[in-house]
Specification:
The protein has 554 residues and is an all-alpha fold. The chain contains 30 helices and no strands. 51% of the residues are buried.
């Protein structure tokens, strides 16, 4: 009689294990985790099932459990004599520990994987996996070309063995490295190759999520908006097909928030960035949470909520996300051109990678122009042009055209500026980027006015105002209001001394420098600034500087 219940329990356990495997295959992570976890308590999971259980934990955002279970899978594979499977477990343990900053343990696991592979001998696909951490190490050491070559070797191994996971991971990494090195065409081609396998369902869950997020990030660094939008939509669909998914969803929401910002849906973008932060923290992903905070800071800055924007940038920094160029542009909007210039110079000095400098150079041009450093702004603009040339990315072309137009306008070359600015406006409109298009239209209006065409200037400014009002871009509306009040010949009641102070502010001098130049106290300079702001109806040094440029008071 006692044998029947034992048989029934055995049948039930087998059925439950099959049900857990089926849930895993259908990417029903909560169910797979629950059922496989119950089977694990009875000691019925072999190495492969422990890997499934670990993956389910990872996809639910339980990284500590993922690492613990994967270590058990490693030992189970070794006990069963499957050393190659154990090597892969050790690889993933090392990679994920490194991502968490536990470099000692990460190095131990990767070293263990390397030793096992050497003992195993022969030409193995696992060698390609172990090349990936080496590529990351060479990149961190400032050798991006060497890193890209190592990734290319891993791609070749993935192709030779027909391993879709390795091929997708290595192609995505090599493509990203090439983009950071300035080779956008080849880099984007590799990203597309990686995404074909992922979108076709050929890649297993964790590598698929890594490739999705890595490809979209690389597209954004390359300013390849079309691809970023396309693959973000694909990532969103992938996430939505897995209702229990926590891992990768934080990054997905960050990407969606960035696209919403570009398209002018700022309220929705703020909400999405907040959800991205929460999901990143839930999934123990500080990187995703930091990116979400930075995105919130960007949108808040454009809306004029400077205090909240600064809080967001500071949190992004605490979570490991460089807050530039956003924080420098915030300082500029607050009227502190000195702090803005120092911040952007420091950020540029820290990187020589063309891809990363692309994110900084347009902001550097804007800040330098606001500080009156025309020649330095022109140098940065020329550097931007050298990186962008022949890349064929509309967003990059728009950034370059806008920067060139702003530099020419500041140099008094209105005709040359107008050609570049009209090109920039056209490109931003094609990209459905209303904020950037409106800002360029303001500059187009200034160029038209400088050429004596007041009617064309009024039309451009009116169109820009309508878009900025719809967006709620308070700082730009304030600057535009100060520009629009420049019709006649009066100077809004400014005294000669106040005009001198205004000219120096527009040239980028701080209060101490102005005090030394005019032989007055800093307190007196501050009082003059208060009077200037009140008479011009502005609230920042940036808006006052714009007035000085527009009225040709320099």
């Amino acid at each position: 009689m006692r044998s029947v219940p034992r048989d029934n329990r055995l049948v039930t356990a087998v059925d439950d294990l099959d049900r857990g495997r089926e849930s895993y295959a259908h990417q029903e992570w909560a169910s797979a985790h629950q059922v496989l976890g119950a089977a694990d308590l009875s000691g019925r999971l072999d190495g492969a099932d422990l890997e499934r259980f670990a993956t389910a934990a990872y996809m639910l955002g339980r990284e500590a459990e993922f690492l613990e279970t994967l270590e058990r899978a490693y030992r189970s594979h070794l006990d069963a004599g499957d050393r190659l499977a154990a090597i892969r477990c050790a690889f993933w343990l090392g990679v994920n520990l490194a991502r968490q900053g536990e470099m000692g343990r990460a190095g131990g696991w990767l070293g263990r994987a390397g030793r096992l592979l050497e003992e195993e001998g022969g030409d193995r696909v696992e060698r390609g996996y172990l090349l990936l951490p080496r590529a990351f190490q060479r990149e961190a050491a400032g050798e991006p070309a060497v890193a890209a070559a190592i990734a290319a070797e891993a791609v070749a191994i993935g192709q030779r063995f027909g391993d879709p996971d390795l091929l997708a991971l290595a192609a995505q990494l090599q493509g990203h490295l090439l983009i950071r090195g300035g080779d956008l065409a080849e880099g984007l081609a590799l990203l597309d190759e990686a995404m074909v396998a992922v979108a076709g369902g050929e890649v297993s869950p964790i590598p698929a999520g890594i490739v999705y997020c890595g490809v979209i990030l690389a597209c954004q660094e390359a300013h390849e908006v079309g691809r970023a939008v396309e693959w973000t939509a694909a990532l969103s669909d992938w996430c939505e097909r897995q209702p229990d998914l926590v891992a990768f969803t934080g990054r997905c929401r960050v990407h969606r928030a960035e696209i919403m910002q570009l398209r002018g849906a700022w309220a929705e973008g703020l909400d999405e960035a907040l959800r991205a932060r929460e999901r990143g923290l839930e999934g123990e992903n500080q990187g995703a949470a930091g990116e979400a905070c930075y995105r919130r800071g960007e949108i808040l800055r454009l809306r004029g909520d400077f205090a909240a924007a600064e809080d967001a940038y500071r949190e992004a920094s605490r979570r490991g996300r460089e807050p530039q160029p956003g924080l420098a542009l915030l300082r500029l909007a607050q009227g502190d051109a000195d702090a803005a210039g120092s911040a952007i110079r420091r950020a540029l000095a820290e990187t020589s990678e063309p891809g990363r400098r692309l994110a900084l150079l347009p902001a550097a041009v804007e800040i330098l122009l606001a500080s009156g450093e025309l020649e330095k702004a022109r140098e940065r603009c020329e550097e931007l042009g050298e990186i962008v040339v022949n890349q064929g990315a509309p967003l990059l072309d728009a950034l370059l055209a806008g920067s060139r137009g702003a530099v020419d306008l500041a140099a008094g070359e209105a005709a040359a500026a107008l050609a570049s600015l009209r090109r920039a406006r056209e490109l931003w409109q094609q990209l459905d980027a209303p904020y950037e298009a409106a800002r360029v239209r303001v500059l187009v209006g200034s160029a038209c006015r400088a050429l004596g065409d007041e009617e064309a200037a009024a039309l451009e400014v009116e169109a820009a105002r309508e878009d900025l009002e719809r967006l709620g871009a308070a700082p730009e509306l304030e600057r535009l209001a100060s520009l629009e009040g420049r019709g006649g010949g009066d100077d809004h009641g400014l005294t000669e001394r106040e005009l001198e102070v205004l000219r120096l502010v527009a040239a980028g001098h701080g209060n101490r420098e102005i005090a030394a130049e005019l032989v007055i106290s800093e307190h007196t300079v501050a009082r003059h600034l208060q009077n200037i702001f009140a008479k011009l109806g502005v609230s920042s040094r940036t808006a006052a500087s714009a007035y000085a440029y527009e009225r040709r008071l320099l």
